[in-house]
Specification:
It is built from ten helices and seven strands. The chain is mainly alpha-helical. It has three domains: 207 residues, Helix Hairpins; 127 residues; 84 residues, Rossmann fold (3-Layer(aba) Sandwich). Helix 2 runs antiparallel to helix 3, helix 3 packs antiparallel against helix 6 and helix 6 packs across helix 7. The two termini are 48 Å apart. The mean pLDDT is 75. InterPro entries: P-loop_NTPase (IPR027417), RecF/RecN/SMC_N (IPR003395). It comes from Anopheles gambiae (African malaria mosquito). This is RecF/RecN/SMC N-terminal domain-containing protein.
Length: 503
């Protein structure tokens, strides 16, 4: 019965392992689903900020500049036409007469100079704008090429978006299926846990029954010993009786010779033909002999012997049953011991690895291990070995007080890491350490306990610098006060580390 329960327990453990793997796969698919959503949003933002949109805005701006330049060219040409007309008018006035020419010659020459200067400036501006126009034309051609490229990129991005959306739909479908599967698996886990609890109770009852059987076995052994002593005593008494009978047979040789005729008819031992008086005398004589013999021979010895032999056989049968049960129990104990040994070996390996890693973080350049003493199995005990740059110390007494404190702290934290808790409270564990060791403790906690929270009481800055939130107590005007300070940099760094681990 117990072996069947253990087989069921192993099957349940295997099923739980499969369920945990399925849950892990669900977590991976959900993470992939979130990542695809993130990539889709990024592609949409990139499409909104693509060079196609920027190029389109630049083209519109350049078209506006071209229109402005064309208007400027038209205005310059109109100004040139007006100046030419004015020159012709001045030339006509000069032809009208010498007097008028003399009066207005100077003014006309000045106007002519100004007009020529303005015309020259307009011509230069026109040439400059014409060059700008050519430049803008080339830029427009380049921008048009960029538009074509941007359109191609937009088409590719739309294809990528469509593919990602399709993939997102597939992953969403898979996620829904996995969600339903996980829900069903959680229900199975709950049922298996209930079954395991029931089997644990049965196993506990079996252990109780085993203890009870062991106790009964001890009691039966004691009873068997008593019965064996009684049987020995009865056999000794029986042997004494037989010895006396044998002595009488040796003393009276006729007894063995005539023994077979005792009570036989027509013999001298035919008690029916015996003379009563003679028989009485013989009876009295035999009675006297019996009385004498009864003092030494137990007449009930044979009856007691038979009864004791039956009891002995029953006890031996019960003993065999107990021994068979004992063998089964011992086999179970052996299996449990082997399982315990395997679990302890796994725990030793993990704690040893964490112990060395944590101690080397607290005290760089050092090594630490948990090893069994020479010639002793690890089940008998382990001892701490510490080395500095490859040189191993013979004993912890060679270490300083601070170093021994770090060894003890590393060992405690390594054991806690084997079976971690969500919250730890440390009260001035760095009181006997210098600042460098205190700083190393803070770094070690951040590196090795990323999924746990610590409440640490400390009086040293090396520990403060690693805190995400710092509570300071003050004594102001006869009253205690508490201030809360948030280390934003540490919180952002922790969030970034968590995000990187999530990817």
């Amino acid at each position: 019965m117990l072996q069947e329960k253990e087989a069921e327990l192993r099957d349940i453990s295997a099923e739980v392992s499969k369920i945990e793997k399925t849950a892990h796969r669900f977590g991976q698919l959900k993470e992939q689903h979130d990542m695809l959503n993130y990539e889709l949003n990024n592609l949409k933002q990139r499409l909104a900020q693509t060079s196609f949109q920027q190029t389109k805005e630049e083209i519109e701006e350049l078209n506006k500049k071209i229109e402005t330049l064309q208007k400027t060219i038209v205005e310059a040409r109109e100004t040139q036409t007006q100046c030419s007309a004015k020159v012709k008018d001045l030339q006509a006035k000069i032809a009208d007469g010498k007097g008028h020419r003399e009066r207005e010659l100077k003014s006309a020459e000045e106007d002519l100079k100004r007009s020529k200067k303005k015309s020259e400036e307009s011509r230069k501006n026109w040439k400059k704008h014409e060059q700008d126009f050519e430049t803008l034309k080339l830029e427009i051609e380049e921008l048009q090429k960029g538009i074509v490229t941007a359109k191609e990129q937009a088409v590719k991005l739309e294809e990528q978006i469509a593919a990602l959306q399709q993939r997102l739909v597939e992953v969403s479908g898979t996620t829904d299926e996995m969600t339903a599967a996980v829900t069903a698996l959680k229900q199975q886990i709950k049922q298996h846990k209930e079954k395991m609890n029931s089997q644990s109770k049965e196993l506990k009852a079996k252990y109780h029954q085993r203890d009870k059987l062991l106790k009964q076995n001890d009691e039966l052994k004691l009873e068997i010993k008593k019965k064996e002593n009684e049987i020995t005593k009865v056999r000794n008494e029986n042997k004494d009786g037989y010895d006396r009978i044998s002595g009488m047979e040796q003393k009276y040789p006729w007894i063995p010779e005539d023994k077979e005729f005792f009570g036989v008819k027509n013999t001298r031992y035919d008690y029916n033909k015996e003379d009563p008086q003679e028989a009485g005398r013989k009876l009295k004589k035999l009675q006297d002999s019996k009385d004498k013999m009864s003092r030494n021979v137990n007449q009930k010895a044979m009856v007691l012997l038979e009864r004791e032999e039956e009891q002995y056989k029953e006890v031996m049968r019960r003993k065999k049953v107990v021994e068979d049960d004992k063998k089964k129990i011992q086999a179970i104990i052996t299996d449990l011991d082997e399982e315990k040994k395997k679990k302890l070996k796994v725990a030793w390996s993990e704690v040893d690895e964490n112990f060395g890693s944590i101690f080397s973080t607290l005290l760089p350049g050092t090594q630490a291990r948990l090893v069994p003493p020479d010639g002793v199995d690890f089940m008998k005990g382990l001892e701490v070995k510490v080395g500095f740059n490859g040189m191993w110390k013979e004993s912890l007494t060679e270490l300083s007080g601070g170093q021994r404190s770090l060894v003890a702290l590393s060992l405690i934290l390594a054991m806690l890491k084997y079976k971690p808790a969500p919250l730890y409270i440390l009260d001035e564990v760095d009181a006997a350490l210098d600042l460098s060791h205190t700083q190393n403790i803070g770094n070690m906690l951040k590196a090795h306990f990323t999924n746990s929270q610590f409440i640490i009481v400390s009086l040293k800055d090396g520990m403060f610098n690693n805190a995400n939130v710092l509570f300071r107590t003050k004594f102001i005007d006869g009253m205690s006060g508490v201030t809360r300070t948030v280390n934003v940099a540490n919180i952002k760094r922790a969030a970034a580390d968590a995000a990187s681990r999530g990817r």
